[in-house]
Design a protein that fits this description.
Chain lengths: 315, 502
C-alpha cells in the first residue's frame, strides 16, 4: 500500500451529498478492489474514498453488548492508528465499528447493498451522514435499488475486496460475516477473529474460523502485526497503547475503596449481573448496593444497563 | 292537593339538592314526571306506582303530576323513587312532609327500598343546607352517618312508612344497630409475600414515601403486577378527610359495597389497556362522570403494559399527573374531579420482552425497541421519577426460603415517618413527588459531596434538566426515609440507580 495520495474524484454536489461515479478504468478506482476476480465495473460514491489502507470489521446484526464493545474499541484503535475501517452499515457489529472508527482520527467507509438514496437500515441515516462527511458510502447498486436479500452476499465481496484483511466479531454459524470471511480468503486477504464466549452461539462461526487458521485478535496490534507495510500505523498504535497503560492497570486492579472493591470483585467483564443478585450475594440491603453501584459507575469502573451491571472493559 | 319531599342527586361528585313536588288534581287518571329526567327517571312512574299499590297504599286514581326542582338540572338515576313515593302518598293523604327531612332510595316493585349511589355526597350536601332527618336505604345508612350528625333512618320497605305517614307515628331508628357494618378489609399483598426483588421493593418504598410515580420494566412473568399490588399496603392509612373523599367517590360510582362505612385503605385500580380516554380520566355521557383516575384518588393507579394503552388515553393522563385533578367538560356542564394518585406503570423492556435478560435472546431490532419506548411520551415520562428493572426470577429462587423479608407493616412505619418529615417541611404540601423546580431549590439543597456526584452523573449520563430534577426529588425522599435534613452523597447515589435506562 505504498501509493501516492490520489487526486479527488470528480464531484457532483457539495457537502455531504457530493456524489461521484468511479469506473474500473479510472485511476481513482481502489487498487486492491481491482485485484479480485469480479470487481464491480463502477462504484457509486458519496463522500470521498480515502486513499489509505483499509481493514474490514464485520459481524452479527444481533450482536451482544460485548461484541459491540469489542468492535467499537478495535475500530477506534485502528482509526487512531491511521487505518480506514470498512464495514457494511448494518445493525449490530457493523454500526459499532463505524461509530468506533468515527471516534478515531481516520475516515471510515461503508459499503452498501442498496442504492445511495436508500440508506438501510433506515435508522442509520444519521450514521451514514456522519460517515460520508469524512469518509465514503459506496455501492455498486444504482439509485433506487432496494435492500433485497440477494444483494448482501454480493456486496460482501466488495467489503473484503477493498480491505487488506477482515476482522470477524461475532458471527453465527451461517451468516453474512462468514461469507465475507470466506471471500476474503478466496481473494487472498487476511482473516482475523475476535473470540467470544464458548457459550455464545454467535461465537461459533468465528471460533471455527480460528480453528481453520484465522488469527485470534485481542488488540489492534494483533491485526497490524500481520502487515509489514503498516509499520507506521503499528508504531502509532503502540505509542497510544503505552500512553494508556497507566490508566489501564488502574482500572484492571479495581477500585481502592474496600467497599466498592467488594462489589467490583463480584462483577464480570461480559455477563451482566443484576442489582438484586448482588444484594443477595453480599447480603446487603438494596439501598447500599445502589449507592456503591453509582459510585463505581461514576468513577468509570462499571457500566450499568437496565438494572444490570458489568465491569467496564479496559480502554 | 300538593306535597313536597326533599331528596338529592349527584353531579360529577357533588351532591345537589332536589325537591320533589307532587300534585294530585281532578282529571283523567294519569302519572306524569317533569323536570329533565333521564330514562331511568321516566321509568320511575311504573316502579313508584306499583310499589305504592303493593305496600298497602292506594295509588290515587286521578291526575298525578310530579315535578323535580330545580327543573333545569338534568337528573339521572333511580334515587328519586322514595321521595316521589313520599310526595305522592302524602299528597293523596293531604299531609305535609317536614321540610327538613330527606328521602333517598330506589323502589322495588314490591315496595322494598334498594340502595343507591352517592348517598354520602348527597347527605353531606343536604346536611350543610340544614336537613335534619334522613331516610335512606338500610344498606346506605353507614355511609350517610359519615356525613351527618342528624338522625339517619334506614328504610327497608315502603310499608314501614305506612303508620308514620297515615297516623303520624314516629319512625324509630330501629335500623341503626343492623346498619353498623364494618368496612370490608381489602385483600392486600404483603411485601413479605413477594420473593426476592430487593431493588424493586426498595423502589416501592421510596414511591410510597414521596408519592413518586414508578415504572417497572421487566420481562413477562417477572412479578411486576404482584409488586404493584403490594403498594397500597405500605401507604399510610387514609386520614379522616381523605377517607371521606375516597368513600364518597366510591359511593358515587357505585363501588361501595352495600352496608359499607368509611373506607380506610387507599384504593387500587388496575384498568385494562383497552380502556378509552373517557373511561380513564372521566367523561362519558351528557353529565361528567368520574373515570379510573378519580377512582384511584388517594391510592394507586396501576397500568400494566402501559405501552399498549391507547395513545390518546395516555396523553389524557397529563393533567391529572400534573395537577392531581382534572376538569371534565360535557354538554350538560363541567366538573372538576379529583385525581391525585401514585401511578405504577409496568412495561416490557421491548416488544419481545427479553431485552437485558442475560438468559434469553432479544429478537427485536433497535428500531423496534426505540418505537416501543416512544409509545410512552416525554411528558408522561417526565412525571415518572422512579424506574426499576424487574428481572425474571429463576424457579430455584422462588423456592428458596427467604432470608430477610420485611413485611408491609415495617415498611409502612418508615413511610409514615418520611411523610411526617415532608409535612413538617411543607404543611400545605405537596409531597416530594410533586415538588416543582423552584421548590426543589429550597427543599433539596445538596452538600458539597453530593453536588460533585450529581454533576459528574449529569455529565457522564447526559442527564437533562428534567432528569436532574427527578433525581433530586427522589434523593429528597431517600433522605427523608433516612431521617436526614440535608441530602447526602449516599442519597443522590441511590437516587441515580432509579433513573431511566435504555
Amino acid at each position: 500500500m505504498a501509493e501516492d495520495p490520489l487526486p479527488d474524484p470528480p464531484h457532483k454536489g457539495e457537502g455531504d451529498r457530493r456524489e461521484s461515479t468511479v469506473w474500473l478504468t479510472d485511476p481513482t478506482y481502489p487498487w486492491l478492489l481491482k485485484q479480485i476476480h469480479d470487481p464491480p465495473p463502477r462504484l457509486f460514491v458519496r463522500g470521498r474514498l480515502p486513499p489509505v489502507p483499509m481493514i474490514a470489521i464485520v459481524g452479527s446484526r444481533r450482536a451482544t453488548p460485548y461484541g459491540c464493545r469489542a468492535a467499537h474499541r478495535l475500530a477506534r484503535d485502528l482509526s487512531d492508528a491511521g487505518v480506514v475501517v470498512v464495514s457494511g452499515l448494518a445493525r449490530g457489529i457493523d454500526a459499532a465499528a463505524h461509530r468506533g472508527a468515527l471516534e478515531g482520527g481516520t475516515p471510515t467507509v461503508a459499503v452498501m447493498a442498496t442504492g445511495l438514496d436508500r440508506i438501510y437500515p433506515p435508522e442509520h441515516g444519521e450514521l451514514a451522514t456522519g460517515i460520508a462527511a469524512s469518509g465514503a458510502l459506496i455501492t455498486e447498486a444504482e439509485e433506487g435499488t432496494l435492500p433485497l436479500p440477494g444483494r448482501f452476499p454480493v456486496r460482501n465481496r466488495i467489503i473484503s475486496g477493498l480491505s487488506l484483511g477482515v476482522v470477524v466479531v461475532e458471527a453465527a454459524e451461517r451468516s453474512g460475516a462468514l461469507i465475507t470471511a470466506r471471500m476474503a480468503a478466496e481473494q487472498g486477504r487476511e482473516v482475523f477473529c475476535v473470540p467470544g464466549s464458548i457459550e455464545n452461539p454467535l461465537a461459533i462461526g468465528g471460533h471455527r474460523l480460528i480453528k481453520d487458521g484465522a488469527k485470534l485478535v485481542q488488540t489492534v496490534e494483533d491485526v497490524l502485526d500481520e502487515f509489514a507495510d503498516l509499520a507506521h500505523a503499528r508504531a502509532r498504535a503502540h505509542a497510544r497503547t503505552h500512553a494508556r497503560t497507566r490508566t489501564r492497570t488502574r482500572a484492571d486492579s479495581g477500585p481502592q475503596d474496600p467497599e466498592l472493591f467488594a462489589v467490583w470483585e463480584l462483577l464480570d467483564w461480559v455477563e451482566p449481573r443484576h442489582h438484586d443478585d448482588l444484594a443477595v450475594m453480599m447480603n446487603l440491603d438494596s439501598k447500599e448496593v445502589s449507592r456503591r453501584l453509582t459510585l463505581l459507575e461514576m468513577s468509570g469502573y462499571i457500566i450499568g444497563d437496565c438494572g444490570a451491571v458489568t465491569r467496564r472493559a479496559r480502554d | 292537593m300538593l306535597a313536597r319531599a326533599l331528596c338529592g342527586t349527584v353531579f360529577g361528585l357533588d351532591g345537589v339538592r332536589v325537591e320533589v313536588e307532587a300534585d294530585i288534581a281532578d282529571g283523567l287518571p294519569g302519572f306524569h314526571i317533569v323536570g329533565l329526567g333521564d330514562r331511568a327517571l321516566q321509568e320511575a312512574r311504573e316502579r313508584v306506582k306499583i310499589a305504592i299499590n303493593n305496600s298497602g297504599f292506594e295509588f290515587p286514581g286521578r291526575r298525578v303530576t310530579v315535578n323535580l326542582a330545580p327543573a333545569q338540572l338534568p337528573k339521572e338515576g333511580t334515587g328519586f323513587d322514595l321521595a316521589i313515593a313520599a310526595a305522592v302518598v302524602n299528597a293523596a293523604l293531604d299531609r305535609r312532609l317536614p321540610s327538613d327531612a330527606a328521602w333517598l332510595g330506589e323502589l322495588a316493585l314490591d315496595g322494598a327500598v334498594r340502595p343507591i349511589r352517592g348517598t354520602l355526597a348527597i347527605t353531606a350536601h343536604l346536611d350543610r343546607l340544614g336537613v335534619r332527618r334522613f331516610y335512606v336505604p338500610s344498606a346506605n345508612v353507614a355511609e350517610a352517618r359519615i356525613a351527618t350528625a342528624a338522625p339517619v333512618l334506614g328504610v327497608d320497605h315502603l310499608r314501614d312508612l305506612k303508620a308514620h305517614w297515615e297516623d303520624g307515628a314516629p319512625l324509630t331508628e330501629a335500623a341503626r344497630a343492623a346498619a353498623d357494618v364494618v368496612s370490608p378489609v381489602s385483600i392486600l399483598i404483603d411485601l413479605a409475600d413477594v420473593r426476592g426483588q430487593p431493588h424493586a421493593k426498595r423502589a416501592l418504598e421510596v414511591a410510597a414515601a414521596g408519592a413518586h410515580h414508578l415504572l417497572l420494566v421487566g420481562p413477562p412473568g417477572a412479578g411486576k403486577t404482584l409488586l404493584a399490588r403490594a403498594l397500597p399496603g405500605i401507604l399510610p392509612g387514609l386520614t379522616q378527610q381523605e377517607a371521606v373523599e375516597v368513600t364518597s367517590i366510591a359511593s358515587c360510582v357505585g363501588m361501595l359495597p352495600p352496608g359499607a362505612g368509611l373506607l380506610e385503605v387507599p384504593p387500587f385500580r388496575a384498568p385494562h389497556h383497552t380502556i378509552s380516554p373517557a373511561a380513564l380520566v372521566g367523561g362519558g355521557g351528557a353529565a361528567p362522570r368520574p373515570g379510573e383516575v378519580t377512582r384511584a384518588h388517594r391510592g394507586v393507579l396501576f397500568m400494566d403494559e402501559i405501552t399498549e394503552f391507547r395513545r390518546d388515553a395516555l396523553e389524557s393522563l397529563r393533567q391529572p399527573l400534573e395537577e392531581g385533578k382534572l376538569a371534565v367538560a360535557r354538554t350538560r356542564g363541567h366538573a372538576v374531579l379529583p385525581g391525585r394518585f401514585i401511578l405504577v406503570a409496568a412495561a416490557n423492556p421491548c416488544p419481545c420482552g427479553f431485552a437485558g435478560d442475560p438468559k434469553r435472546f432479544c429478537e427485536c431490532t433497535p428500531l423496534e425497541r426505540q418505537r416501543y419506548r416512544a409509545r410512552l411520551s416525554g411528558p408522561i415520562r417526565d412525571r415518572i421519577d422512579l424506574q426499576v428493572t424487574v428481572p425474571r426470577q429463576a424457579a430455584g429462587e422462588l423456592l428458596r426460603a427467604e432470608v430477610v423479608a420485611e413485611n408491609s407493616a415495617t415498611v409502612r412505619d418508615r413511610v409514615i415517618q418520611a411523610r411526617a418529615r415532608q409535612h413538617a417541611r411543607r404543611p400545605q404540601g405537596p409531597l416530594n413527588g410533586a415538588l416543582s423546580g423552584t421548590q426543589l431549590r429550597k427543599d433539596a439543597a445538596l452538600d458539597a459531596n453530593s453536588q460533585v456526584l450529581l454533576e459528574t452523573a449529569a455529565d457522564r449520563l447526559q442527564l437533562s434538566g428534567r432528569a436532574v430534577h427527578r433525581v433530586l426529588r427522589v434523593a429528597r425522599t431517600i433522605a427523608d426515609l433516612d431521617h436526614r435534613p440535608q441530602i447526602e452523597q449516599s442519597h443522590v447515589a441511590e437516587a441515580l440507580q432509579y433513573r431511566e435506562s435504555g
